[in-house]
Amino acid sequence: MDSVALLVAATLNSGTVLAFAALGLLINERAGIVNLGAEGIMLVAAVAGFATVVHTGSDWLGFGAGALAGALLAAAFAVLVIWLNTNQYASGLALSLFGVGFSAFVGIRYTQEKLGERPNFQIPGLADVPFVGPALFRQHPMVYLAIALTVAIAWFLYRSRPGLVLRAVGESPESAHALGYPVRRIRFLAVVFGGALCGLSGAYVSTVYTPLWVEGMIAGKGWIALALTTFATWRPARVLLGAYLFGGVTMLQFHLQGEGVQVPSQFLTMLPYLATIVVLVLISRNASFIRVNMPASIGKPFFPG
Amino acid sequence: MTRLSKRSFVQLAGIGALAAIGALAGCSKEEKTTTTTTPAGTTSTTTTSTTTVTAASAPMSAASGPLKIAFAYVGPTGDGGWTFAHDNGRKALEKELGDKIQTSFVENVPEAADAERVFRDMVGQGNKLIFGTTFGYMEPMLKVATDNPGVRFEHATGYKQSENMRTYDTRTYEGAYMAGVIAGGMTKSNTLGVVGSVPIPEVIRNINSFTLGAQSVNPNVKTKVVWVNKWFDPPKETEAAQSLINGGADVLMQNTDSPAVLQTAEKAGKYAFGWDSDMTAYGPKAHLASSQINWAPYYIKATKEALDGSWKGGGNTWWGVKEGAIDLVAVSDKVPADLKAKLDKARAGLKDGSFSIWKGPITSNDGKEVLAAGATADDKFLGGINFYVKGVEGQVPGGEKK
Fold this sequence. Notes:
Chain A has helices spanning 2-30, 38-56, 59-83, 88-106, 132-136, 141-159, 161-171, 173-178, 183-209, 221-231, 236-258, 265-283, 287-293. Chain A is mainly alpha-helical. Chain A has a single domain, classed as ABC transporter involved in vitamin B12 uptake, BtuC, CATH 1.10.3470. In chain A, helix 1 (2-30) crosses helix 10, helix 3 packs antiparallel against helix 4 (88-106) and helix 11 runs antiparallel to helix 12. The longest helix of chain A is centred in the first third of the chain and has 29 residues, at 2-30. Chain A is globular. Chain B has two domains: 48-56 and 65-170, Response regulator (Rossmann fold, 3-Layer(aba) Sandwich); 172-293 and 333-383, Response regulator (Rossmann fold). Chain B has a seven-stranded mixed β-sheet, sandwiched between helices. Chain B has a six-stranded mixed β-sheet with strand order 8-7-9-10-11-13, sandwiched between helices. In chain B, strands 14-15 form a two-stranded antiparallel sheet. In chain B, helix 3 (82-97) crosses helix 10. Mean pLDDT of chain B is 83; it is low at 1-63.
């Protein structure tokens, strides 16, 4: 029983990393911009967050620095693809490669650094409830923030007027433009916001999840987040579900290995990817549903007439 | 090949200063080629970047100047583990031989087709001694070695040799055994955990030796193993370590390349070891000791042989505690004196050759006797270990075939 509780706790923690990045990318894509630079943004944010915590000792400043670094990189990307109309895929890949190299370069002196005591969080009262306490209520505040953010983004997209405008920009920038909305500025804000969330995710990895800095430590999580938004058909709740699912199966396969289950570990390593894809494909097997949800202008540049 | 012919043409045509200038120009051009043509990020999940750094400690003089030596690393020099240890070996080599040599290295060379091009570039840059520091470079190195008989190749942890290629390795399992001695004495739950990278004989041997070491002081110990199937993926290593801790393990060891496992143990209030390099700084409370590889003695020996012409291809060098290539360093104050004494005894025995880790009777975890009483394993046996010893839980992935 105890180990199941710990498994749930580890799942929430692991899924949070992906959830932040994937939610950010979802906002991007809802506005019609694909940012393949997520991996690079997360790495730069990871080193920025780590360095800030090393120098200031404050985790929250670290998250701020990570979000800021992510927002700045995303802003540069946004200028390229929105005003200069460069190819989104090529620019995103370039940003990703740049981020990998740049983070390694500025991070050289931080590879041997270590952070101070990592605080343990728990919600008073609830943390001591048997099973539920250790499973759900001893998490880092960012884990709960991810859930709150999902609700907030879902509300924003489907219940608020600005959310409607954002979706309109993603569906048909021409119509939005004709109605008098500043398409380029809206897209810019969406990309910057998305970058900031990817940055938060990167900072979470380097300061909370694996509190150290080593080159390339994001190890593909940015790419998985990108895939998640697509498999989740651009719906916030499904993004969160997919992130937890991926985190859960990842932890489960390690858990099974530790228990000595007779399945090849290579197969188990493949499992998270497989399970996430299968489940998300199953819940959205209605092809028209995907078409309805996919932002129509995704990846296409917009030229105001 | 065009590069080579261009190069030899320049060297033939130019005499004296001209040749020197030609070589210089050739070098800088080659370097540029490396950085621009190297793709960073080969797959979408494992992002890698390749950078070329030339250590500029030795001045570049005429073509007949210092011996040019190149190293290919699988990870970044800042990984704090495997590649870091190799790079320390390279630095020690530079210190020892000074301006007689000139070293350079390429980081993050993937264990894939890209590696071959990196090795060809190294040859093109005029390197006469090339070290490849991971198992996966075996085939590409052999191919490039066959095409370039004038260049000497040294491949770490492999098993294929040729006229101008030989292999070297360290007995990392001796470090694992010594770590095991401490782990066996420090565990309270009698459950140890190992985060394994890729299930090859070397890693399985380390898991087994770790367990044998632990059993030498505590016969009730069992070891849980979790494979991440990667050499370097800190978040994954963290997840694996966490799941071992959740499963009751209170002393962890890893055969992966980053300090993430130690860091996780630190956070969870458990114990762990450093691997390949001294990792005390990453988790001072959790750190019990570090199994350290010192590549310097071998790099110095091989380079000296290349310099005086006694270098010969073929053959494998496998050094351990005896030759100063392996040691368990930075033993924590938390380790009680009697346990330290047991460690010292094992170390002394390995050093003078009076003690052998793989000495029968040893049974595998499915009850078969793999080494009869009194028999000592030879290197061939050690090189083909694909079973877990008694006390390790689970089954070697794909370990059914013999």
